Amino acid sequence: MKDFEFYNPVKVFFGKDQVAQITGQVPAGSKVILIYGGGSIFKNGVYDRVKSALKGYDLTEFGGIEPNPTYETSMKAVEIIKQKNISYIIAAGGGSVIDATKFIAAAALFKNGDPWKILSEGAEVTEAIPFGCVLTLPATGTEMNKNSVISRKSTQEKMAFSVPPVFPKFSILLPDAAGSLPQKQVANGIVDAFVHVTEQYLTYPVNAPIQDRFAEAIMITLIEEAPKVYAKPDDYEAMSNLMWSATMALNGLISCGVPGDWSVHSIGHELTAFHGIDHARTLAIVLPGLWKTLREEKKGKLLQYGERVWGIKSGTEEERVTAAIDKTEKFFQSLGIGTRLSDYGVKKDTIDRIVTRFEERKWLSMGDRGLTTPQVTRKALEIQL
Question: Is the pTM of the predicted complex or chain greater than 0.85?
């Protein structure tokens, strides 16, 4: 096991009747802005519940955060925050709203030029406006971490940052609100959470059995709950298990002392940037292709994954590796998610653009052990044409 530091200050309130907890978490006298997305919080009743909890506060609202939150929209919120001297933010919605809120909270106090530098140059973030989250869609785990991903329409880029000042002060998780989600969003959430786990698990063995078994438990739970919650999103128990699995997948716990990869995400972000494909669906394309390309380098963990998660115990090592990858791809497909570029009308010219962009950025050795070179990226995508 590698040396590690673990820190997670996020207070979590989980369940049906937790929105009222906002009142005790937001300091009295705060000037609050409520940030949300396309309006789902009006349909599922969350808006009214949040408004009730914020009664008595000086409240401003900002809606319209996109499913892939953009720099351009986020900066509009930053301007309002500066104009109105906002001191606290509430983010209500899914991972996109929370990711946008993290960037907005940091950008509003950023003093070193264009806040895009936080993403493009890794500029230091020393402070952020405090904020709390009301989560209505299980997927990203952003409600309990310091990560955010933002797109910039003008340059067709999608970039990430991760800094301690943007840990939420608290997060309220509402499985009942998620019960009204369409199947497509439920499927996206399942795949997103699943790939978050594999990015921290499917690297190479480092004798970290606790982390491995935590990760395997999350994946097994997702596999077991997926058909239930996909068929019936308002199955409260199944949705609760999905939501907590997604949170646990990326709150830092399973990454302690183990190598991470994240090249699947880096490649997937480009597919979203160029074609607007849902984040989870880009992961479902890239993950199998990358495993097929690096099957020898990742063989140790692929064999362990196949046996412990899918029960694959017979056959040669090569056959078991193939079966583990096939099982994963079929799992994604069972949720109505295509795993080929052709499923989304993407052709070879996009692969050329992605490889060229990585070369220009000097992203020449991504992932664990620097295995994901531009050449590996090309092969992984071509396999999934």
Answer: yes
